[in-house]
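Morning run. Coffee first, then this:
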Amino acid sequence: MNSTIINETRKLNYTVQEAFKTLRTNFLFSGDDIKTVLITSCVKNEGKSTVSIELSKSLAIYDKKVLLIDADLRKSVFANEYTTNEKEVLGLSEYLSGQTDYENILYSTQVENLNLIFAGAVPPNPVELLGSKKFQELIAKAREEYDYVIIDAAPLGAVIDASAISNFCDGAILVITANEISYRFAQDVKEQLEKSNCKVLGAILNRIPMKSTSYYNNYYKKYYGKHGRYGGRIGSGADYDGYGGYGYSNPTKNGGGY
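And here it is:
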């Protein structure tokens, strides 16, 4: 197995650490049949890759064996989060196009129990690769070897890649930027996931301004109603390296959220 080194320059403050612990707890209560999970967003730069990485770390620290797959073949940000000792990093696109074997794309990390598959080179046909039988077989294989498989996908509001991947997943989580993404837009993306018969486990409300405690209550009431159109109770995190806070609500039978 190849090895990769986690870039530890970005540190989580205490509040955000606690938010991810709560997210992990809610995630674990999704059910023992939820093992392969897609994480996507409406548009780029909503923090989905950060959520994918930190949730994977949190699960691994909790003594779960985790595989994190970077399936954003169009614009991966994982190269900025991880470094390797290899000159040439082979990833998912090389494997799905038949250029290399499974063993050559699997990387261990400095986080015990956490392995990683990079996206690889940008291919001309990402949707075809991600919707292929070979990717389905890869997910099935990983499902047998790991407790959880977390898949970071391209924003579904921009390209259709995540919809192709969702066919092979047990559930999906949608990352939404507070005060930027409209309810209608988020609902359209959620419905697109449901068309693939993928269970929407919930939503993460990201980049919540925490300058005052009243802001979020007003935002929540204005855009989501008294009880929240995603269902459940939404909590919040704190500002962190430009990503802002993390909101989460408990899953519900109506779509719920984190």
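The chain has one domain: 2-248. Good start to the day.
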